[in-house]
Amino acid sequence: GIQVEQSPPDLILQEGANSTLRCNFSDSVNNLQWFHQNPWGQLINLFYIPSGTKQNGRLSATTVATERYSLLYISSSQTTDSGVYFCAVLMKTSYDKVIFGPGTSLSVIP
Amino acid sequence: DVKVTQSSRYLVKRTGEKVFLECVQDMDHENMFWYRQDPGLGLRLIYFSYDVKMKEKGDIPEGYSVSREKKERFSLILESASTNQTSMYLCASSFDSGARYGYTFGSGTRLTVV
To answer: Is residue A97 part of a domain?
Structure first.
């Protein structure tokens, strides 16, 4: 089956620093999404980005589908950015199935 | 404010008990999903439903069943709870099966089986 990998698994940042999170996937996909899970467990959809680049405030994401990876950029990090970031891919199979990566745990310290 | 509501935030049950986890969405979404989340494993799909009374197995359906009698409600049932079912359970809904417009997640139920 399709494999979804994320790196790094853990990241600690000083407030104000920038970071890049990576998601690699092993097969062709129909779409890719980035989610943020806050420390209280709530999952929020950040981006739907099967290809190209999108930006939303301090966050932006780029997916290069032909090379099977996606990047999530966080600029000027804030303590509220802490939590786990997941990428999730939709397989090109007979039925729609979203597969989540293992996540990157981010801690932003003041 | 649209949302997905899970009935319990924390739950402690004994081995062998029948456990019901309830999820209700108010967005008139066709598609609903149950995931479990374990450290280092990300989210794994247990069951999903595209319509009322319809269900499909996900990656790890063993030991679970589901019920969708009404469009807004999707229940996860542990027929006989076991300690390896201790986990965080997340319910989600989406407008379409591929979640092209995004999943909306509930706040999760942290289940402990003792």
So the answer is: yes
Report which of B15, B13, B29, B39 is spatially closest to residue B106, judged by C-alpha positions: B29
Delineate the domains of chain B, giving CATH numbers in brackets.
16-98 (2.60.40.10)
Q: Please check whether residue A83 touches B, CB under 8 A.
A: no
As a three-state string, the secondary structure of A36-64 is EECCCCCEEEEEECCCEEEEECCEEEEEE
Yes or no, beta carbons of B102 and A86 under 8 Å apart: no
> Residue A9: exposed, middle, or buried by beta-carbon count in 10 A (0-12, 13-18, 19+)?
exposed
pLDDT in tens, B32-72: 999 999 987 788 999 999 889 889 998 899 999 999 999 99
CATH code, domain with A8: 2.60.40.10
Report the alpha-carbon distance of residue B76 to residue B95 in Å, rounded. 20
pLDDT at residue A94 in the model:
44
Nearest neighbour of A102 by CB, restricted to B41, B90, B102? B41
Which amino acid belongs to residue A69? Y
Residue A110 domain-assigned (yes or no): no
Q: How many structural domains comprise chain A?
A: 1
Token pair 């890049």: residue = A20
- Any CB–CB contact under 8 A between A102 and chain B? yes
Whether A109 is covered by a domain: the verdict is no
So what's the pLDDT on residue A106?
96
Query: How does pLDDT run across A77-90, given as a tens digit for each residue?
Result: 999 999 999 999 88
